[in-house]
C-alpha cells in the first residue's frame, strides 16, 4: 500500500496542534482558517486532532483517581517554611544556643520544631473522630480496642511526618508488614492493613508510635 | 506563532508570585491552591507513585518559595511551574533508574500505512483506546502530547518546560501524533 501525502505541507501540519489547543497566534490561525475552508483533508485532520485532544483529556482524567495532597500538602509546606524561618532566625541571632548542622537541606535541630508545630497543626486540622490523649498519642473516638485484636487484617490510620520521605515510609511499611489500603485523605490520613504476622495490634501500635521519625499519628480504625 | 496575551488570571498569578518573592505566606498559599492539583497530576503521571509524586510536589513548591524572584514573567506561571516540576521529576526518575533519559523515541513508530484522519475521529475520542496508544509512546513523546493536548501549552512553552529547543518539540509532537494515528488505526481495524 502506498503512503498518502496530505495536500498540506509539514509546516501547516505542525501548526495544527496549536490551532486545536488554542495557543496559535492570530495570523497563523487566520491562515489555517482560510486553508481549511477549501481543503477537506486539512479540515479532517483538524477534526481528528480535536477528537484526539478530547480523547487525551478523557484518558488522563480517568487516571486522576489518585488525590493530590491538597490542603495537607500546603500545611506540610507551611510547617517546613516556618521551621526554616525559625532556623534562619536562630542562625542570625548572635550566640545561638545550639549550633545547626545541615542535613538534606535542613538543620538537625528542626526535628524538635517540626514535632511541636505538627502537634499544633494537627489540632487545628481537627482529627474528627479522634481524641487527643497525652502529647502526640491519638486514640479512636470509640476507645482503645487494640488489646482485643490480633494484628491479622487489623486496619490503622496513619499520618506520616511532613519531613518523611517516600523511601522512609516505604521502608517502615515493609518492616512492619503494612499495606496501604487507601489515602491520603484530605487530612493526610492513610488507611493501612496489617499482614498475618504473629503479635497483636497493641504491639504494632507501640512499634509505630516508637517511629516518631516517620509517623506523626497512628490510630486504630 | 503563539499568542502572548496575558489573561486577568495570569496577571493575578504573576502578582501573587511577586508577593511570594517578598516571602508573603498568604500569596504562597494562593499560588499553591491554584496550581497544586495540576502540577501534582503532571508529576504523578510520570512517576506513577502518589507518595513520590507528593514528595516531588513538595519540593517543587519549596523551590517556588525560594526562587519566585527568578520568575521572569516572559512565560506563563503554569509553564514556569511545570518546568520546575518536570526537572525535579526527571531527577527522581534518573535516581530510580539511570537508564531513564531523554531520547527522541522517533524510531519507535511502527511502520504502517497512514490512516485517514476522518476514519479515526470516533476512536480518537475513546479514552480507553487513546490510553492504550499513549502507553505505546516513548516517555518523551507522551510528555509533549500531554503538554500540548492536556496542559494546552504552545511549543515555546513546552520547550521551556522540558528544556529542549522549540524545533525538537515540534518534531516530537509531529511524530507522536503520527504514532497515535497508526496505533488508533490498528485498534480500529481490530475492533471492526
Structure, described:
The complex is a heterodimer of chains A (221) and B (192). Chain A has 221 residues and is an alpha+beta fold. Chain A has seven helices and eight strands, in the order H-H-H-H-E-E-H-E-E-E-H-E-E-H-E. Chain A folds into two domains: 53 residues; 151 residues, Peptidase S8 propeptide/proteinase inhibitor I9 (Alpha-Beta Plaits, 2-Layer Sandwich), CATH 3.30.70.80. Chain A has a four-stranded antiparallel β-sheet with strand order 6-7-5-8, covered by helices on one side. A two-stranded antiparallel ribbon of chain A has the order 1-2. In chain A, helix 1 crosses helix 3 and helix 4 runs antiparallel to helix 5. Chain B is an all-alpha fold and 192 residues long. In chain B, 72% of the residues lie in helices and 0% in strands. In chain B, helix 1 packs across helix 2, helix 3 packs across helix 4 and helix 4 runs parallel beside helix 8. About 7% of the residues of chain B have low confidence. Chains A and B meet through helix 1, helix 3, helix 4 and helix 6 of A and helix 2, helix 3, helix 5, helix 6 and helix 7 of B.
Estimate percent helicity of chain B. Answer: over 70%
What is the CATH class name of the largest domain in chain B?
Mainly Alpha
Largest sheet of chain A: 4 strands, antiparallel
From the coordinates shown, what is the CATH architecture of the largest domain in chain B? Orthogonal Bundle
Total of helices of chain A: 7
Low-pLDDT stretches of chain B are 99-112
Taken in chain order, the helices and strands of chain B follow as HHHHHHHHH
Shape of chain A: elongated
Major beta sheet, strand line-up of chain A:
6-7-5-8
- Rg over CA atoms of chain A: 27 Å
According to DSSP, the number of beta strands of chain B is: 0
The CATH class name of the largest domain in chain A reads: Alpha Beta
Regions of chain A with pLDDT < 50 over 5+ consecutive residues? 94-147
Order of helices and strands of chain A: HHHHEEHEEEHEEHE
Amino acid at each position: 500500500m502506498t503512503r498518502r501525502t496530505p495536500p498540506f505541507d509539514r509546516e501547516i501540519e505542525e501548526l495544527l496542534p496549536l490551532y486545536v489547543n488554542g495557543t496559535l497566534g492570530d495570523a497563523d490561525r487566520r491562515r489555517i482558517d482560510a486553508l481549511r475552508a477549501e481543503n477537506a483533508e486539512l479540515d479532517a485532520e483538524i477534526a481528528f486532532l480535536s477528537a484526539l485532544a478530547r480523547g487525551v483529556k478523557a484518558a488522563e482524567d480517568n487516571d486522576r483517581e489518585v488525590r493530590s495532597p491538597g490542603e495537607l500538602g500546603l500545611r506540610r509546606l507551611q510547617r517546613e517554611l516556618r521551621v526554616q524561618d525559625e532556623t534562619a532566625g536562630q542562625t542570625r541571632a548572635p550566640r545561638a544556643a545550639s549550633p545547626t548542622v545541615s542535613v538534606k537541606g535542613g538543620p538537625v535541630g528542626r526535628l524538635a520544631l517540626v514535632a511541636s508545630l505538627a502537634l499544633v497543626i494537627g489540632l487545628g486540622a481537627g482529627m474528627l473522630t479522634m481524641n487527643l490523649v497525652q502529647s502526640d498519642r491519638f486514640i479512636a473516638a470509640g476507645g482503645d480496642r487494640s488489646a482485643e485484636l490480633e494484628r491479622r487484617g487489623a486496619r490503622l490510620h496513619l499520618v506520616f511526618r511532613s519531613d518523611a520521605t517516600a523511601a522512609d515510609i516505604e521502608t517502615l511499611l515493609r518492616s512492619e508488614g503494612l499495606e496501604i489500603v487507601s489515602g491520603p485523605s484530605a487530612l493526610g490520613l492513610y488507611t493501612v492493613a496489617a499482614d498475618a504476622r504473629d503479635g497483636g495490634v497493641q504491639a504494632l501500635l507501640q512499634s509505630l508510635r516508637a517511629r516518631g521519625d516517620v509517623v506523626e499519628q497512628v490510630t486504630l480504625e | 506563532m503563539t499568542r502572548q496575551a496575558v489573561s486577568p488570571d495570569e496577571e493575578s498569578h504573576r502578582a501573587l508570585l511577586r508577593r511570594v518573592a517578598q516571602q508573603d505566606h498568604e500569596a504562597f498559599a494562593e499560588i499553591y491552591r491554584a496550581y497544586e492539583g495540576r502540577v501534582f497530576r503532571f508529576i504523578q503521571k510520570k512517576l506513577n507513585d502518589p507518595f513520590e509524586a507528593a514528595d516531588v510536589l513538595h519540593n517543587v513548591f519549596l523551590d517556588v518559595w525560594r526562587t519566585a524572584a527568578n520568575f521572569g514573567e516572559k512565560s506563563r506561571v503554569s509553564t514556569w511551574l511545570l518546568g520546575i516540576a518536570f526537572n525535579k521529576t526527571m531527577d527522581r526518575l534518573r535516581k530510580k533508574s539511570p537508564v531513564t533519559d531523554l531520547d527522541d523515541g522517533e524510531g519507535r513508530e511502527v511502520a504502517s500505512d497512514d490512516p485517514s484522519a476522518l476514519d479515526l475521529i470516533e476512536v480518537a475520542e475513546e479514552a480507553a483506546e487513546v490510553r492504550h496508544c499513549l502507553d505505546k509512546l516513548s516517555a518523551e513523546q507522551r510528555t509533549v502530547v500531554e503538554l500540548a493536548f492536556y496542559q494546552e501549552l504552545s511549543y515555546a512553552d513546552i520547550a521551556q518546560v522540558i528544556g529542549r529547543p522549540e524545533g525538537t518539540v515540534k518534531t516530537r509532537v509531529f511524530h507522536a501524533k503520527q504514532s497515535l494515528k497508526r496505533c488508533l488505526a490498528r485498534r480500529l481495524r481490530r475492533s471492526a
